Every structure is written in structure tokens, then in C-alpha cells.
Amino acid sequence: MNTVVVTNVVKSYGRYRALDGLSFTTGPGVTGLLGPNGAGKTTLIRMLATVLTVDSGTLRLLGRDPSAERLPIRRRLGYLPQEPGFHRSFTVFEFVDYVAILKELTDRRERHDEVRRVIAEVGLAAVSGKRIRALSGGMRRRVGIAQALLGEPELVLLDEPTAGLDPEQRLRFRDLISRIGENRTVLLATHQTEDVAALCGRVVVLDQGRCAFEGTPEELRRVAEGQVWLSPERSGMLSWRTGEGLFRNIGGAPAAARLVEPTIEDGYLLLLGDAAVGVGS
Amino acid sequence: MSDWHVDDDLAARYAGGDLGGTTAASVEAHLLACERCRGSVAAAVPAERLERLWQGIAEVVDAPVPGPFERLLRLLRIEEPTARLLGVTYSLRWPWLAANAVSLLFAVYAAGVNDRWGLLSFLALAPVLPVAGVALAFGRGADPAYEIGLAAPYSVFRLMLMRAAAVLVTSAVLAFAAGFAFLGNWVAVAWLLPALALTTLTLVLSSRFDPVYAGSALALLWLAGISVFAVRDQPLAMFGAAGQVTALAVALVAAALLFLRRDRYQSEES
What we know:
The complex is a heterodimer of chains A (about 280) and B (about 270).
Chain A: E1 4-13, E2 16-26, E3 29-34, H1 41-48, E4 56-61, H2 70-74, E5 77-80, H3 92-102, H4 108-121, H5 137-148, E6 155-159, H6 167-180, E7 185-190, H7 193-199, E8 202-207, E9 210-215, H8 217-222, E10 228-231, E11 238-241, E12 247-250, E13 258-259, H9 264-272
Helix pairs in contact in A: 3-4, 3-5, 4-5
Chain B: H1 8-15, H2 21-33, H3 35-44, H4 47-62, H5 68-75, H6 80-87, H7 94-113, H8 115-135, H9 146-150, H10 156-182, H11 192-205, H12 211-231, H13 241-260
């Protein structure tokens, strides 16, 4: 069953079109939303979180239309914004408990049990009484994920949850997100292709508000098959010098080049061209 | 170590809570030093009871400590979830309330020194304070968890109204107290309808603008209006009968608009 169905969605801010006729579908498991800055990932995630409305086109979330049935969708939704704000004087427990009230968990005992459950699920039980201002950035992200898991939502939206984390923290997040995605639909907005390779069963690549690719990570990798080369000289296409002193070139074959196996990142770069590396398109 | 140990019967009575205080204390002192007896007592404790005890302990340790305003609301029989949602509001906390009270005291002191201009300063200030309080009670600029709350099922509109009402009541109580204590006549409440009109308008504009900007713009307009009449040597004109009727009409129209536009607060428009 498709939990998320996006059809010809348009969203503009003044004259700027953040989403320009975007269409894709996805279901249970972890789906990665890849795209360069400004591709429309955050706008899309906020729209799926029912925070933003569409200008035109249609959305179906969990089988419902958010413009007419916002409340039942919100009751089955978990959302971690790109920049989640915290009441910094709150303890971890107090903050998650506050969000639990906003999620209509009114019975105090049941609510506190649920708060303890999600705090334990993200591995923060030992710091549950600690003030949020005293936590590291990685721990705050986990607090953000904990609140998104309240009430066992069927659709979890995570906007850049691994941005700015060190490799060890990112590894922990991957473990956590893969567990969350075992029995739910998780949409993960990111520009880290490693996260997509490690976590996602499906990937949607956004470019300038449109869907540039929809498929599995393996299919994204195959986009660059036969087009990634190692050569002693830089070619005129996307290329960079590797640690071995050779240039990794994506696109047509340069002189004296050796064909190598592509990665998901190669497929992504080939798909988006200069836009992916911020040169402009 | 003594040869005495906790037998099965004693372990069962201890686990069941049937021992007297002195005997239970002796058993506990012994358990601290005897691993064998800890094992036999642990086996006698029903897992369900142990779980319940731990839950109780966790509840005591984890339970959020309510602030003074939240405790006051609980005393007034406001339900715990509502009291918590109100208690986190910046403009319902002591620093804000204290700043409000001090501002009002300065204004009423000025009114005592100079009847006309002092009274004007009090009447001009009294509506601005609830507007500022309401502007800082909700919205992206005032609530760090605003975005998370916007995607939650709890109605943003209801939350906004509850916080605005609480701010209005606390501001009004302070202004009433200051006005009656130091001015001692009904002129001291001439600010009430303008305050109601300005705060309701702030809420209406907040469907389109950040409440802080909406409140600031309205407060500046209000002070500009007062200044215009003051320059014309009619400093209290906005608080006369015509001014009060206008304020009431504005408040009613704004309340109607607020009701009609209530759905716009549930999500953000571009």
C-alpha cells in the first residue's frame, strides 16, 4: 500500500517555485529524499507534515487527503523538523512530555509510560532528567526523534536528522532509523548519499522542485554504470582527485581511463550534474 | 557474618510486605551483606509487583516539576495537560509578570505626580502590556517547539486562544490592582476595551504575520494615535465615550474575523 502519494504538487513562495509539479509514491520502509540545497526537500517534508498546504496538485497521506482530513493524519504522524526548537530549560523528559500533551496523550500515567518508552528507544534513558541545554547536538537530535515516535506513528518524517553529526553519531542514527523503518513508513530528507545507501529501500531525487529519479538505491547506482572512470588527468566533466592521485571522472571516457564500479553518489551526481555540486545549473 | 539467613517463609513475608518495620529493617540490613539471601528474596518477589514498584519510582523521579503559574492553575482546578501548556508560556512566567508590574507601578506613580499626563501614560501603557504578552505567548518567534506543535493534533487555534486569554487575565489583574490601588476611581479601567480590541486584532493579524510583528505594529499605531490626540491637547480623547464605543466595535469585528479565519492557524500559508 502506498502511504504517501504525491501528484503534480506545486508550491510557490512569491515568484519562486519550491515544488514544480512533483509526483512520486512511497510505502512502508525507509525512503530517502535526496537533493541539493534548494531542491524542495524541506518544503515537501513540511507539506507532508501538514504544516504547509499545496498551491495545486494533490497529496494522499495514509490514504487521506490532508486538505480535508488534517487531524486524523496528524494523529498518525511523527515529524522531526530540520531545525527542531527545544525549550532548553526543560529536561529531556519534560520536553517529550510537553509534545506528548500536544499529541493528545492526556492520561498522565499512560503519557509518562509512553514518554519513557520513546526516550528508551532512542537510547536516552540515562539522561532523561538532564536539561536539554546541557546535551550534545547528537543527543538533541535523538530527543527530536523521540518526540517524533510518540504514539507509534505510521508515517515518520525526518528532515536532515544526520546533518552535522560525527561518523559515530551517524552510525547510531542509522541503526535507530533502520529500526524505526521496520514497521512504518519513514521519509528521510538528506543530502548524504551514504545515508541513503545504508538505510533506504527506495530513493527519490529532487531537483529544482521536480522528481529527477524514483527507484531503489541500486537503480540510482546503475544510472552511472559504465560512466565512472579513473584517469591520470582531469576530464571536462564532473571530476575530482582521489587519494591515490588519480582523477575520478563521471560521464564520457577521458584518455587512458580505467572503468570503475559506480557508487550511489556517482549516480546522483550524474543525474543532477552541476546542481549537485553547487555550481548552478 | 552471622549464620542467620532469610528462610523461604521470611522471604515470602518480606516480599509480600507483611513484616513489621523493625524486622523488615533487620532483613534489609542483612540483605546488603548477603548475596545468597538477596537471591532467595528476589525469587520470592512477584515480577508484576516489582514492575509496579519500579514504575512508581520512575514516575516520582521523572515527573515534571510544575512552575509557580502551573501550580496556581492546578489549584484553580485547571486540568494538568492544559496547565502544562499554559505554564510554559513566556509571558505567563514571573520575569514577565514582574516587568509588567514594575512598568505599571511607574505609570501609576506618574499619574500621582501629574494628574493629566500621568493618567495618560498609565492608560496608554495598560493596553500595550497585554498586547506584548499575547505576542510573546505563541508563534514561531516565541515558542521554540512551534513547528513540532503545528504538526501535532492539538489545535493551534485553541492553544493560541487559551494562552491569549490567560495573558489577558493576568495583565488585567495587574493593571486593575495598580489602577485601583493608586488612582482609586473608575477612570483607571478606561484602558480595558482598547486592550481587548488590540489583543484581538493581534490574534487576527497573527494568521498572516508573526505575532511579534503584528503586536509591535499595533502597539506603535496605538501609541501614535494617543500622541496625535495629545498634540491636539485632547490627551484622553481615545478613552472617552466615542473611543470606548470604537474600541468595543473593533473588538467585536476582530472576534468575528478570528472565528471566521480559525482554520488558517492550523497550517502555514506561503
